[in-house]
Specification:
- With about 180 residues, this protein is of the alpha+beta class.
- Helices cover about 25% and strands about 20% of the residues.
- It is built from five helices and six strands.
- The chain has helices at about 5-20, 35-40, 60, 80-90, 105-110; strands at about 115, 125, 135-140, 145-150, 160-165, 170.
- A six-stranded antiparallel sheet has the order 1-6-2-3-4-5.
- A hairpin with a 7-residue loop joins strand 4 (about 145-150) and strand 5.
Length: about 180
């Protein structure tokens, strides 16, 4: 989940002004939650034996969120950067996939299977929220999955947590 730049917000205001034809423009109040965790109401899960762990490279983990661009053209400590890093570890690429809400479409266009069936190692993807979200499926427990991701709580940190399987679609890069 990437934050919009000030320039993008300014451009949106200019477009709204031009479309309205008036000298004042008011922004609609956002109903966006502060984080995906707030939207889904989840809490951290207990770590399991199959958990990958926070192996995200220090050059992206140990600097402020969104302060550098990673090898896949994504901002650091975001869910997309974490997922792209792990996909690359398996010899596949999500280079330039953009915001998480576009990952399912981009993956389909690249010939990857996208469906509603989670498998260990698949990418859980949702269009919910302003930017969507992606995470790595760690384990499956009936109607819930344990995932690993970055920025679920909006603070740019790594987290292992449980979510409902029905809340996501699944991208199969290497399974």
């Amino acid at each position: 989940m990437r934050r919009p730049s000030r320039a993008l917000l300014t451009l949106a205001a200019v477009v709204a002004f031009a479309a309205s034809g008036t000298a004042t423009a008011t922004a609609a109040p956002h109903a966006q939650p502060a984080s995906m965790a707030a939207e889904f109401g989840t809490v951290p899960a207990a770590a399991t034996a199959t958990t990958i762990g926070d192996i995200y490279p220090a050059k992206w983990r140990n600097v402020p969120q969104d302060s550098v661009v990673d090898d896949w053209n994504m901002y650091n400590r975001e869910c997309v950067s974490w997922a792209a890093f792990n996909i690359a570890r398996h010899g596949e690429s999500a280079n330039n996939y953009g915001d998480a809400k576009y990952w399912d479409d981009n993956a389909r266009n690249q010939g990857y299977r996208v469906d509603n069936t989670p498998t260990v190692g698949s990418i859980a993807q949702t269009d919910n929220g302003r930017y969507g979200h992606v995470a790595i499926v760690d384990s499956i427990h009936g109607g819930t999955i344990t995932v690993e991701d970055y920025n679920w709580t909006g603070d740019g940190h790594y987290l292992v947590h449980d979510v409902s399987t029905s809340s996501f679609r699944y991208i199969h890069f290497y399974d």
